[in-house]
Amino acid sequence: MEPRLHLMTNDLGAELGKRFADVSLGITRSALPRSTQELVMLRASQINGCGFCVDLHTKTAAKAGESAARLHLVAAWRRSTVFTGAERAALALAEEGTRIADAHPGVSDETWAGVREHYDEEQSTALVYLVAMINAANRLGVIAHHEGGSLPSTGLA
């Protein structure tokens, strides 16, 4: 399947992409651990079926030192032993924040309490923005038909 649209090849797309990247850069620079960020982005991308983003975040996480076992178990994080309590709280938020459109009731008080148990105000803010931004990125990729599998395994940020 060919991409429907190359989002960065026109002036408007380039301008919007820059602004989108600026928000993402703010999240990246936050105190929220980078490994947690990658796990959250990977899980939301799996749920949304964005092959490009699954490919990107799997490879980026691996390059940053994430183990293959943990990457393979992200989809089954609730039934695995390789994630910390803090990572589990972030993954729960990612799932509940992503499944809003599936008639899910949203983020439960229990999930939010888990987030606040492990993350301070700034980290929680970064986590909420991260879930929103990866969901937006997934939608861009799915709508434009950006597929996974073509990204190199090395050289990623």
From TrEMBL:
GO terms for molecular function: peroxiredoxin activity. Keywords: Oxidoreductase, Peroxidase. The keyword Oxidoreductase applies. Residues 15-96 form the Carboxymuconolactone decarboxylase-like domain. Coiled coil: none annotated. The keyword Kinase does not apply. SUPFAM superfamilies: AhpD-like. This is Alkylhydroperoxidase. The lineage of its organism: Bacteria, Bacillati, Actinomycetota, Actinomycetes, Kitasatosporales.
